[in-house]
Design brief:
By secondary structure, the chain is an alpha/beta fold. The protein has helices at residues 2-19, 58-70, 81-85, 91-95, 101-111, 114-130, 132-146, 159-169, 206-213, 239-245, 266-274, 293-299, 317-322, 333-341, 359-367, 380-389, 391-400, 409-426; strands at residues 47-52, 75-80, 150-153, 173-175, 197-201, 222-224, 254-258, 281-288, 306-312, 326-329, 346-349, 371-374. Helices cover 43% and strands 13% of the residues.
Length: 441
């Protein structure tokens, strides 16, 4: 019934947008604020401009990780492509000035209307191709104005247009997909022939390569760098102190529940099921920005042997993973890869279906035996009980993470960017003809 309702809502939403197709883009000037973080800049530093998105939490999380890696050595900045640079052609803003396409996406994501979001993607992949000329014009204006030495993109859908503009302006372009399934990030890219194009992939495994191969990308453009997680994953931790910070008992197994930065009403359903466990456990319930869930969680009846800590939006997710035994989460790229880096057995949510580009995460969990999938809420207590009761099986799952060659993304990405910029200098391209009309300040 939920999926039928989501389909009807999606059809109505997309029909409303079609009505506005013929409206011309608003003639506005590009934002005047500099995207660069001025405290990272001086005249000797190269400018690195990151294109990100506010749709979901993954793009911002990866963008923030890149800032961690690069701010000390480069003049770094970021622009939100869809809500800022391309806002003039955002159909959702034509319908309402109070929200944009990313707001709509986040609303559907929080509701778990995945079928609707899949339809939005199909619409978006067609729409942005249809508006290709307008998009490339807006991108070119933005890039010329901000004069980056390197463009880095962590966004989906429009990277083929960014590639075209980067090639026209003779600027290196580094694409870092935030999903292991690179379909959205590589939308429209086929057999690229720009020597300054670079594709940074997380892992060198067959199922990822197969998707990339569909876009006929030469190996010379591809580097495997690991997934851009926070650098704290590679620093030593005081487990006892972390447990004390979050009121986690020393004598109980710990279950971390996370449904993304946006939070989800499903946390209530999963928590309710876990209160039915017959064994002692402690729940770390990460509600993200959904503070409205906190009073609802507090009202749930908990037996004495099931304790909890409710955590709002935090930058300490790596610490929470380090003190956990099981990770119940949605299938998002960042959550999955952070679990991978933490060697934390995962239970991925499939109670409402899965986004098309996140299905690969489910496949990898099953193929490499990194945990399991839950398709019905009521099955969760049995799954958790089986894992926690069978320590041998839990240890085997943890050992399976070694099948992934997990690189240090901070080291690898920083090294790659240095190589890209050095190569660009050696080619003597700093005085590109396309940028002569916008001399560096």
């Amino acid at each position: 019934m939920k999926r039928i309702f989501a389909t009807i809502i999606s059809i109505l939403f997309l029909s409303g947008i079609v009505f506005f197709y013929l409206m011309p883009p608003k003639k506005e000037t590009i934002e005047t604020e500099s995207p660069y973080l001025m405290h990272t800049c001086n005249k000797d530093k190269k400018k690195v401009l990151i294109f990100s998105s506010k749709g979901g939490g993954g793009h911002i999380s990866v963008m923030n990780a890149l800032h961690e890696y690069l701010d000390e050595e480069f003049c770094t900045g970021h622009s939100f492509i869809f809500s800022e640079v391309l806002s003039k052609i955002d159909p959702a803003q034509w319908v309402s000035n109070k929200s944009n396409g990313e707001d709509v996406y986040n609303f559907f994501l929080k509701k778990k209307w995945f079928q609707t979001i899949n339809m939005m993607y199909n619409f978006g992949s067609w729409y942005y191709v249809w508006r290709k000329n307008s998009i490339e014009r807006l991108l070119e204006e933005h890039i010329k104005k901000n004069k980056p030495d390197l463009i880095v993109s962590v966004i989906p859908l429009v990277n083929n247009m960014i590639l075209n503009v980067a090639k026209k302006l003779d600027i290196p372009f580094l694409l870092i997909p935030t999903d292991l399934d690179g379909t959205m990030a590589l939308n429209g890219i086929d057999n690229p022939d720009y020597e300054k194009f670079h594709l940074a992939l997380s892992y060198d495994i067959e199922k990822i390569r197969k998707i990339v191969d569909e876009h006929n990308i030469d190996e010379k453009y591809i580097t495997h760098v690991g997934f851009p997680v926070k650098n704290v994953f590679f620093k030593p931790a005081n487990i006892k102190a972390i447990k004390a910070d979050f009121n986690v008992p020393e004598d109980k197994p710990t279950i971390l529940l996370l449904m993304g930065a946006q939070g989800s009403q499903d946390l209530l359903k999963f928590t309710r099921e876990l209160t039915k466990l017959n064994m002692p456990v402690h729940l770390l319930i990460a509600i993200g920005r959904s503070e409205d869930l906190r009073p609802q969680l507090e009202k749930l009846p908990f037996p004495k042997h099931v304790t909890k800590t409710v955590i709002g939006f935090t930058n300490r997710m790596p610490d929470l993973m380090r003190i956990s035994d099981i990770f119940v989460t949605k299938s998002g790229g960042v959550s999955f890869n952070e679990g991978l880096y933490a060697h934390l057995p995962m239970i991925l949510d499939d109670t409402s279906g899965v986004l098309n580009w996140e299905k690969l995460n489910h496949t990898l969990v099953q193929d490499y035996n990194l945990g399991t999938i839950v398709k019905r809420y009521f099955r969760l207590p049995a799954i958790v009980t089986e894992l926690l009761s069978n320590k041998k099986k839990l240890e085997e799952i943890k050992k399976n993470f070694a099948q992934f060659t997990v690189k240090n993304p901070e080291q690898e990405i920083r090294l790659l960017i240095k190589q890209i910029l050095k190569s660009n200098e050696n080619r003597g391209t700093e005085s590109s003809p396309a940028l002569l009309t916008n001399e560096v300040d």
